[in-house]
C-alpha cells in the first residue's frame, strides 16, 4: 500500500519555512529517496501582505534545474484563502504528478526576501 510523505518520518520533509532571514537562499523542500517517488502536490501558503514569487527547482545529483517560477498571493492558505499548488502551476505536462528517481528532490527559493515577521511555507506531498 502506498503511503503519503506527509509527516517527515519516511525521509521526506514535513514542510519548509521561508522567512526574511532566508533572503533568496535556495532550500531543500523535499528529500531524495533510494527509490522512485511520485510528487502529487507542492503546496505554498503565505502570511505575507504582498505576493511572493517562488522559484522551484528539480535537483538531480548536485545540480538544481529551474522548473519555473510561481506567484503566491498575499495571504494564500490563510483566512479561508486556498493554498497555491506550485506543481500544478508549473504546467510540466506530466498529468499533474511527477515521478522522481533515486536521490532527485525539489528545491525552492524566494525571488525577493519575505517581509520581516511573515513567512511562506511549502509542503511537498508525495506517494512512496
CATH topology: Jelly Rolls
Shape: globular
Oligomer: single chain
State the distance separating the first and last CA atoms.
9 Å
Helicity range of the residues?
under 10%
CATH architecture: Sandwich
List segments where confidence is low: pLDDT < 50 over at least 5 consecutive residues.
1-12
The number of strands is 9
Count of domains? 1
Separate helix tally:
1
Give the biggest beta sheet: 5 strands, antiparallel
β-sheet strand percentage: 35-45%
The structural class is: mainly beta
Mean pLDDT: 86
Would you write up a description of this structure?
By secondary structure, the protein is mainly beta. The chain is built from one helix and nine strands. The strands form two sheets. Strands 1, 3, 6, 7 and 9 form a five-stranded antiparallel beta sheet that branches.
Short description:
The chain has 128 residues and is mainly β.
Secondary-structure blueprint of this entry?
Layout: E1 16-19, E2 27-28, E3 37-46, E4 52-60, E5 63-72, E6 84-85, H1 86-90, E7 98-100, E8 105-110, E9 119-127
Antiparallel strand pairs: 1-9, 2-8, 3-6, 3-7, 3-9, 4-5, 4-8
Key phrases:
128 residues; mainly beta; Jelly Rolls; five-stranded antiparallel beta sheet; 1 helix; disordered N terminus
Amino acid at each position: 500500500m502506498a503511503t503519503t510523505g506527509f509527516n517527515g518520518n519516511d525521509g521526506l520533509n514535513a514542510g519548509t519555512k521561508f522567512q526574511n532571514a532566508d533572503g533568496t537562499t535556495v532550500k531543500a523542500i523535499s528529500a531524495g529517496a533510494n527509490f522512485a517517488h511520485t510528487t502529487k502536490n507542492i503546496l505554498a501558503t503565505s502570511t505575507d501582505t504582498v505576493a511572493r514569487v517562488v522559484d522551484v527547482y528539480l535537483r538531480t545529483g548536485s545540480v538544481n534545474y529551474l522548473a519555473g517560477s510561481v506567484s503566491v498571493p498575499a495571504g494564500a492558505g490563510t483566512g479561508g484563502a486556498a493554498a497555491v499548488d506550485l506543481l500544478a502551476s508549473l504546467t510540466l505536462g506530466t498529468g499533474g504528478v511527477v515521478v522522481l528517481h533515486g536521490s532527485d528532490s525539489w528545491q525552492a527559493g524566494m525571488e525577493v526576501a519575505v517581509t520581516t515577521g511573515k513567512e511562506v511555507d511549502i509542503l511537498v506531498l508525495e506517494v512512496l
